[in-house]
Specification:
This protein has 206 residues and is α+β, with helices and mostly antiparallel strands. The protein has 5 helices and 7 strands. It has a 5-stranded mixed beta barrel with strand order 1-3-5-6-7. Helix 2 runs parallel beside helix 5 and helix 3 packs parallel to helix 5.
């Protein structure tokens, strides 16, 4: 049975995935208290994507790894790390920070991704990393959450990243992420071809 709990939520215009390290600037008084409590008690808070006035139903719990800077006015910077995923069953607004009655979940079955699918994902992810000047990272092909590791290190559209977070199958996530990144590469190639043609006034040069 999935574990259920009441979790303080931090609504943000981003998607956090398990294993991702997230730098945050904490300035609102209510979130200063929330994060300080999580730090002192070594507990989690939930990062959930907010779009307008609506919250996504699936989010990722986070733990505070370290406080990197404190300011005289009470603000501070932290590095938080994504841990486990949750499904919001009900929202509780009785406290200053909104809380969620959440159900933690894992994948429905262990990862059984083929070596060819893993190789294709790492290959296209490496190409996108170079195209976007993303930080160098060695991706372990045997990591059970390879899809999340790669998603954490590349600039993805939030809708795609949210779909990855919500998926309960590593096979499905690898397929989804590979297709998305292949689209990024193809889009960049088309743009570069248009620019090349524009420089030649539409004439192909040999």
């Amino acid at each position: 049975m999935a574990e259920k709990a009441l979790l303080p939520l931090f609504p943000l215009d981003l998607v956090l995935v398990p294993g991702e390290v997230l730098p945050l600037h904490i300035f609102e008084p209510r979130y200063r208290v929330m994060v300080s409590n999580a730090l002192a008690d070594r507990t989690e808070f939930g990062v959930v994507r907010q779009s307008g006035d609506s919250l996504e139903q699936v989010g990722c719990a986070a733990t505070v790894r370290e406080v990197t800077q404190r300011f005289d006015d009470g603000r501070f910077n932290i590095r938080a790390a994504g841990s486990r995923r949750f499904l919001i069953r009900m929202l509780d607004s009785s406290e200053e920070c909104i809380q969620g009655a959440v159900e933690y979940f894992a994948d429905d079955s262990p990862a059984q991704v083929s070596s060819s699918a893993v190789g294709a994902l790492i290959d296209v992810a490496t190409r996108v990393r170079r195209l976007t000047d993303s930080p160098q990272e060695d991706w372990n092909p045997n990591h059970p959450w390879l899809s999340f590791r790669i998603a954490a290190g590349l600039p993805l559209e939030l809708d795609t990243k949210q779909r990855l977070l919500s998926s309960r199958s590593e096979v499905q996530r690898v397929e989804l992420l590979t297709g998305y990144l292949q689209g990024v590469v193809a889009k960049r190639a088309r743009r570069e071809e248009r620019e090349r043609l524009a420089r030649g006034n539409g004439r192909l040069r040999h």
